[in-house]
Specification:
GDXG_lipolytic_enzyme, 8-stranded mixed β-sheet, Rossmann fold, about 325 residues, hydrolase
């Protein structure tokens, strides 16, 4: 973490150097990470629609319910895999699963989703999130015992775009209804980690990708979807008691992440219903850049992993209240 400021904040400049910094830290804990029980499943028809389930040895039980955290990684819509082979000997993102499973007793589901090289086009990212959530509902025995599930969704960067699409786009109201009303699996919270909520100040080298994936990339951005969905507020997930956490690193870039975050939060706080305004929490990750949070988990270093404790505290706070 101490060497991160010298890398700057531009995402394209920090990716490889950041992973190289964390690679030896993860290697030291490779045995612990790989010891976490994992199973792999197909959640859809496409070859990319695969997920890994990391299971805790001692599940956290609150009010008779078990937590499941589903994670969608980033990658600019063009890169990413549920385990990265280029760094850490496939320890990233297994380290995310191991951290929340071993430290907090969460079952962690890490999904692959379609990239643009697989023909991904808006709103395909939201479709993949929906299909993975439906898989959890249909295959509860693969992720839990007899206990009902408190489901939390966390999307990082591009994964957060897809999570926002799932939450705000009308195409996914049927799946949302399933996880907002079911007795066995209930969506309780969503974490939007370092998400580019709009592309008003995105770097020019991203324009072609944005146009190819989104078409109208301002209207179909998370901020654009929020503006459109406000016309029918209160949102279904807000009425069901779901809480949102917007979480950014203090070394995230201003142009691509922090300014869009401010515009999204301002728009959200313009909701006319108090429940909607109150459903949003905003917090910081101190000392990290855009890439480092996910790489820092399971390093065994408290200050590196502190943000994961922030996420767990957010989720566990919600779990202390019964689902609506």
């Amino acid at each position: 973490m101490d060497h991160l400021p010298e890398l700057g904040t531009a995402i394209q400049n920090v990716v490889i150097p950041t992973f190289k910094l964390y690679d030896p830290l993860l290697q030291k804990n490779a045995g612990h990470i790989k010891a976490t029980p994992k199973s792999t499943h197909q959640y859809g028809q496409h070859e990319r629609q695969v997920l890994d389930v990391y299971s805790p040895s001692k599940p956290s039980i609150i009010d008779g319910r078990r937590p499941v955290l589903m994670f969608e990684y980033g990658g600019g819509l063009v890169n990413g895999s549920r385990t990265l082979s280029m760094f850490g000997n496939e320890l990233v993102y297994a380290n995310v699963g191991a951290f929340f499973a071993s430290k907090f007793g969460y079952t962690v589901v890490i999904i692959d989703y379609r990239l643009m090289s697989h023909g991904a086009k808006f709103p395909s990212g939201g479709q993949d999130v929906a299909l993975a959530a439906e898989w959890i509902v249909k295959n509860k025995d693969q992720v839990s015992d007899s206990c009902p599930i408190d489901l939390f969704l966390m999307g990082n960067s591009a994964g957060g775009i897809h999570l926002s699409t799932f939450l705000l786009h009308s195409d996914f109201s049927k799946t949302r209804h399933q996880v907002l009303t079911g007795s066995d699996v209930r969506l309780r919270g969503a974490i939007l980690l370092a998400v580019p909520f709009d592309f008003e100040t995105a770097t020019s080298d991203r324009t072609e990708t944005l146009e190819m994936y989104f078409g109208d990339y301002q209207a179909n951005s998370p901020l654009g979807l929020l503006k459109a969905a406000k016309q029918s507020a209160p949102f279904d997930f807000v009425k069901a008691g779901v809480r949102l956490l917007v979480l950014d690193a203090d070394l995230d870039p201003e142009d691509e992440i922090l300014k869009p975050r401010d515009r999204f939060v301002k728009e959200w706080l313009g909701l006319t219903d108090s429940a909607g305004r109150g459903a949003l929490a905003v917090d910081w990750i101190l000392g990290h850049n855009h890439i480092s949070p996910v790489a820092a988990l399971s390093t065994g270093i408290d200050k590196e992993e502190a943000w994961g404790c922030q996420v767990a505290a957010f989720c566990d706070g919600i779990r202390k209240f019964a689902p609506r």
